[in-house]
Design goal:
The protein is mainly alpha-helical. 76% of the residues lie in helices and 0% in strands.
Amino acid sequence: MLGRGRQPDPDPLAHRVALLIGGSRVAIGVGALFAPRPALRLLGFGGTEATGEAMARLAGGRDLALGALTVGARHDASTLGTVILVSSACDLADALALGLAARREETRRAALGGVLSGGAAALAGFWAWRRLGA
């Protein structure tokens, strides 16, 4: 609804999609940061060593921070749009990186799943960003 000096209300579906992405990111981030081995297994990666666990924790911290920022911006459409744009850029970068990892036999299954999920999250996030009017 428009009022004097008010911006149009954000698209409710785009708002919901952005928050679902943010909430999912919090859940993935918590898992990867605090329980990297089970999280990596759940994502389709086989046995991991210390380096893989450290990388999972780094990604988990990033996802937790981005998810928390997204959820925290839920009452400000402009800020939510900015955060979901950054989040989507990260999802796109993840999909590209996992696409490169798909060249290796031992990471192919997990990497292809990551390309699909990261690519889908990036597309959904970019769609939400556009609809939020950012």
